[in-house]
Amino acid sequence: MKTKDWFTDWFNTSYYHILYKDRNDADAQLFMRNITSFLSLPKTTHILDLPCGKGRHAVFLNSLGYKVTGGDLAENSIKYAKKFENENLNFEVHDMRKPFNNTYDSVFNLFTSFGYFEDDAEDILILENIKNGLNKDGFFVFDFLNAEKVKLNLVKEEVKVVDNITFNIKREIKNGFIFKHISFFADDKQHSYTEQVKYLDLPKMTSFLEKVGFKIENVFGNYSLDNYNPKTSDRLIIVAK
Ligand SMILES: C[S@@+](CC[C@H](N)C(=O)[O-])C[C@H]1O[C@@H](n2cnc3c(N)ncnc32)[C@H](O)[C@@H]1O
């Protein structure tokens, strides 16, 4: 029998949110300001933030005046995000491998929220769902780690103490994936999880996007929207139509 997918468990734990609690809202907000202004998105734009996690980008985009829907597989994150709902801000549990019930003017896939699946066909299915869920001339914004820089600077072992939990982290790149093995002792138990993200560099991601009929309009290397450099950029940010 197939075990539950790693992302279904790990992202739904409180430990995941503890480990990443220093995740920077200021960065998220800077990026959202820059990208909406670069794309000249009118305030009438309906944006889908997929997957939205606890809604940090979605809530901010809504505060800028946009109508926003956030979808995520993690029920706990959606439950949290729902506290911020209003007439123009909605959250729902959604598996991005499933087609949407609605169409959107823009779809944002932010902060390395892609490439979790073994089979390329699942990644391509997600891109197809996004393409079919976009209104005419809609933008797809994709924000991923810069795999080439990660490979050049791989931190193989790291210890992070957050909220009195000692997280032992090991990283490796093999079989086309970047693995992050996370183990820690908490609540009287030893835990271990592995995050697994496909090694998606610009050529590979371009081939995925082109397969479903997306055309790349811009490539940026960070949240200030500077040019992308495969060796030095922090992020791989793609705008496609
Ligand atoms: C790295 S987090 C980023 C979340 C959010 N974009 C942010 O920046 O805070 C990745 C998110 O993907 C969600 N996720 C994983 N697999 C998913 C799937 N098949 N469908 C929808 N969401 C998924 C996880 O629950 C998690 O919230």
Automatic annotation (TrEMBL):
Keywords: Methyltransferase, Transferase. Gene3D superfamilies: S-adenosyl-L-methionine-dependent methyltransferases, Vaccinia Virus protein VP39. One of its GO terms (biological process) is methylation. Coiled coil: none annotated. The keyword Methyltransferase applies. It holds the Pfam family Methyltransf_31. The keyword Transmembrane helix does not apply. CDD domains: AdoMet_MTases (cd02440). GO terms for molecular function: methyltransferase activity. Residues 43-160 form the Methyltransferase domain. This is Class I SAM-dependent methyltransferase. It comes from Polaribacter pectinis.
